[in-house]
Amino acid sequence: MNRIITVSLLALAISSATLAPAMAEAPVNYVKIAKPEVGTPVLLVQPEVSLALLTAGGSQDPKEEWSQSARKFIGESLNTVLSNRKYKTSTIDLTTYEDPRALQILKLNDAVINSIALNQIITYKMPTKVGFDWTLGDGVTTLVPADATADAPPAYALFVRVKGSYSSGGRAAMMIGMAALGAAIPMGGQTIQASLIDLKSGKVVWYNFMGVAAGTDIRTAEGAASAVNTLTANLPL
Fold first, then answer.
1. Which of 89, 125, 128, 140 could form a disulfide with 202 if both were Cys (CB 3.0 to 4.6 A apart)?
2. Per residue, what are the HEC states of the chain?
3. Is-contact 94 45, C-beta < 8 A?
4. What is the C-alpha separation between 135 and 109, in angstroms, rounded?
């Protein structure tokens, strides 16, 4: 629930950015790192995806099939991006973690990412937080899969979350009708949140939050690839 509230707040802030001077300056979302060598192992955590149908009445009907399709295509697109940049990738599903220490780090990761999201909204910005300085601590080593090569364990872990909805035909028709009356109603939309973690130091070295462009369907291979290319444009790998 806290994650949903946090992401919703950030989405609202970004959607109203043109009206809010506080959001005029893009927040710092990375720390400078030396570009990793070709072949550096990167752990790609299977994306967390939650998509729903936005009905004419405004309720959201979860669609697991949509979520699975987007998860598959976004995961494949992320793997393609990293492979094209000459990194060695491995993928892991969050549900496979059983070590209590790893589960605790995953909970901490949720809390830190939510804090980053809120801190990028001036209204919620921490007055003592200067620059981009976030960490999960050295416990992140517990996220390295047990079967990882001992002499070349993953150097970074990439986390991605996707949340949103697609409008039903009835909702679209209502939007047209309301527009004719000079009124507007919210339509469906999707957001993507991503973070890159240094698996040695535990530092969050990059973060991004974006709204998926209108007309881009992340439930398809083409749409997912387009969204991922935009998402990772400034990924420091």
1. 140
2. CHHHHHHHHHHHHHHCHHHCHHHCCCCCCECCCCCCCCCCEEEEECCEEEEEEECCCCCEEECHHHHHHHHHHHHHHHHHHHHHCCCEEEEECHHHCCCHHHHHHHHHHHHHHHHHHHHCCHHHCCCCCCCCCCECCHHHHHHCCCCCCCCCCCCEEEEEEEEEEEECHHHHHHHHHHHHCCCCCCCCCEEEEEEEEECCCCEEEEEEEEECCCCCCCCCHHHHHHHHHHHCCCCCC
3. yes
4. 9
What does the pLDDT look like over 114-158, one tens digit per residue?
Answer: 999 988 887 878 887 778 999 999 999 999 988 876 678 899 999
pTM: 0.84
Residue 152, pLDDT score: 82
CA-to-CA distance for 99 and 173, rounded, in angstroms?
49
Residue with the larger pLDDT of the pair 57 and 64:
64
Q: How far apart are CA 134 and CA 112, in angstroms?
A: 7
CB distance 115 to 134 below 8 Å: yes
* pLDDT per position as a tens digit, 10-25: 554 444 333 334 444 5
Do 219 and 16 meet the contact criterion of CB atoms below 8 Å apart? no
pLDDT in the model for residue 55? 81
Cα 74 to chain center, whole Å? Answer: 11
